[in-house]
């Protein structure tokens, strides 16, 4: 039987990464994505975790705004400048998570450890895309690389906030000192890489 490409053919696309993430990637900024209801309500985070998780959520919101700005402009120079700024912000954010936030959560529960393993793999994919963008920001592949980066990061953010952060709150992980260390490191990294 001949199988014509149609609506269902897209769900079996060979690119495993994109196929796996597609259901979570379709929410436009400002329009609820299927998983958005899983996101933590920032105003209800307990005091022990509020500063650390709140700071990371602020970073997430800032890059998501930039993703939309990139999509909304036709100006090539503006796209390039937004893309480079996002790459910088994401690199600082990922460094803070990898150096301070994720290690502080290691060993809290098996579930959290599994989420951290997955998050680290996702960071690596994002880093590869960031490297490609930074290497040739004026190139023809900017639009494609940045679009995939924005989809990928949006998915990662949904998992972080909707699964990891929720578990951190459930396990009552004390993050007050971690928040201080993260803030100081962020300041340092922003200064060093400005
Ligand atoms: Fe994050
Ligand atoms: Fe992350």
From TrEMBL:
What Pfam families does the record tag this protein with? Hemerythrin
Annotated stretches, region: Disordered: 1-42
Q: Tell me which residues make up the Hemerythrin-like domain.
A: 55-166
Q: Where is the composition biased (Basic residues)?
A: 1-10
Its protein name is Hemerythrin HHE cation binding domain-containing protein
- The protein's organism comes out as Cupriavidus phytorum
């Amino acid at each position: 039987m001949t199988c014509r490409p149609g609506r269902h053919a897209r769900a079996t696309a060979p690119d495993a990464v994109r196929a796996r993430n597609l259901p979570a990637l379709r929410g436009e900024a400002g329009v609820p994505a299927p998983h958005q209801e899983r996101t933590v309500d920032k105003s209800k985070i307990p005091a022990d975790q509020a500063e650390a998780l709140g700071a990371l959520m602020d970073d997430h919101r800032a890059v998501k705004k930039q993703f939309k700005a990139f999509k909304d402009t036709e100006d090539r120079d503006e796209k390039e400048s937004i893309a480079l700024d996002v790459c910088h912000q994401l690199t600082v954010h990922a460094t803070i998570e990898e150096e301070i936030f994720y290690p502080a959560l290691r060993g809290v529960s098996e579930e959290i450890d599994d989420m951290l393993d997955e998050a680290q793999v996702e960071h690596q994919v994002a880093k590869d895309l960031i490297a490609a963008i930074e290497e040739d920001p004026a190139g023809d592949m900017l639009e494609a690389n940045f679009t995939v980066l924005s989809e990928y990061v949006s998915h990662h953010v949904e998992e972080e906030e909707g699964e990891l952060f929720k578990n951190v709150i459930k396990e009552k992980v004390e993050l007050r000192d971690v928040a201080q260390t993260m803030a100081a490191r962020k300041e340092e990294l922003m200064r060093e890489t400005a």
